[in-house]
Amino acid sequence: MEANVMPNDHKDQEEYILLDLDSVSGQLDIPPSAKYVLTGLDTLNPVLIIDDKLKLVGEYGETIGTCIVFTEEDSPVVHEEAGPSEANLFSGTKIIDSSQPPKKQVKPVCQLHKVLKFRISPDSEIQGVTTEQPK
């Protein structure tokens, strides 16, 4: 009797997490080029420090249903010469149409299972932003 045994392959599986800054985006202006440090991803409350001034505390939440992340790329409009013809010297050739604006192509990147929602840390010292809780 022969057993069909599959090798036990323990590859690291990638897990994608959405960083949700919606609750703090109206309170502060985070420049796109801001430096940041994200620590404690394996804890219940990861910390995000932006530009060495702003401290945000995160809390995990599960996604509801299927959550898929997409990327968008510009793609030139391409025409392919087709059909047999004595006059068609470029049969099978692809020609980029520069008179057409590029098309947007959307491709799936990954599926999410968790969302990490951030709030301003009570002990964060932010210039020009009040973090006091209403009394």
UniProtKB/TrEMBL annotation:
<dbReference type="InterPro" id="IPR019481">
    <property type="entry name" value="TFIIIC_triple_barrel"/>
</dbReference>
<feature type="domain" description="Transcription factor TFIIIC triple barrel">
    <location>
        <begin position="13"/>
        <end position="119"/>
    </location>
</feature>
<dbReference type="GO" id="GO:0000127">
    <property type="term" value="C:transcription factor TFIIIC complex"/>
</dbReference>
<dbReference type="GO" id="GO:0006383">
    <property type="term" value="P:transcription by RNA polymerase III"/>
</dbReference>
<dbReference type="InterPro" id="IPR042771">
    <property type="entry name" value="GTF3C6-like"/>
</dbReference>
<dbReference type="Pfam" id="PF10419">
    <property type="entry name" value="TFIIIC_sub6"/>
</dbReference>
<protein>
    <submittedName>
        <fullName>General transcription factor 3C polypeptide 6-like isoform X1</fullName>
    </submittedName>
</protein>
